[in-house]
Amino acid sequence: MAQEHLERFLGDIAPAFRAGDPDVATKEAESRNVAVLQEVYKALAGGDFEAALATLHDDVELEITGPADMPFRGRWKGRAEVGEALRRNFAMIEDQEPVIRSIEAQGDQVDVVFHEHGRVRETGAPYAVLCAQSFTIRDGKILGVEQYVEDLTPPGPILDA
Q: Where's the SnoaL-like domain (predicted)?
């Protein structure tokens, strides 16, 4: 991920969380949870998978859904399986340019919507996706992630498998 896009994405997290909520200063638990997301996004964007895994609960579950032809789809349980999935998925893409559309936090749930474009590492083909992620955070660790990915790349799938 290009450094300037990474910095913009990370810098947009806190303002997106605060946007439109006059009571955001009173949401201490939610602020801590958003900080956990900022930490994991920073680690993943920097390719530091060990730091990213340190933000995960031992019993973490990750489920990614989307179009049938998308190779990122799957369900993984436990830090080791989720770590393998993250490494595999991020190894498929490069030059990611994510842009946050919204962040909402309530209690132990944080929902993030963003769009991203970049290139498929193997072919150099461009891709564009819209992602909705729902995180469950307990005791400062990510316990669950549900992600839906919509392919916006015309005319075909994100990756030709």
A: 38-143
- Residue 87 CA, chain-centre distance (Å), reads 13
- Listed in order, strand segments (DSSP E) in the chain are 56-65, 74-77, 93-106, 109-120, 126-138, 141-151
| Angle of CA points 26, 104, 154, to nearest 5° | 160
147: which strand partners?
64, 133
Domain ranges for the chain, please list them.
3-151
How many other C-beta atoms can be found within 10 angstroms of the C-beta atom of residue 86? 20
- Give the bridge partners for 62, in sequence order: 76, 145
Output DSSP code: residue 21. Answer: -
Pick the closest to residue 34 from 97, 108, 98 (CA basis): 108
- Give, for all 161 residues of the chain, the pLDDT tens digit: 456 777 788 888 888 888 878 877 888 999 999 999 999 999 998 889 999 999 999 999 999 999 888 888 999 999 999 999 999 999 999 999 999 999 999 999 999 999 999 998 998 989 899 999 999 999 999 999 999 999 887 654 554 44
Would you say 56 and 90 are in contact if contact means Cβ atoms under 8 Å apart?
A: no
- For residues 109 and 136, what is the distance between their CA atoms, to the nearest angstrom? 5
Domain 3-151 part of CATH 3.40.630.10: no
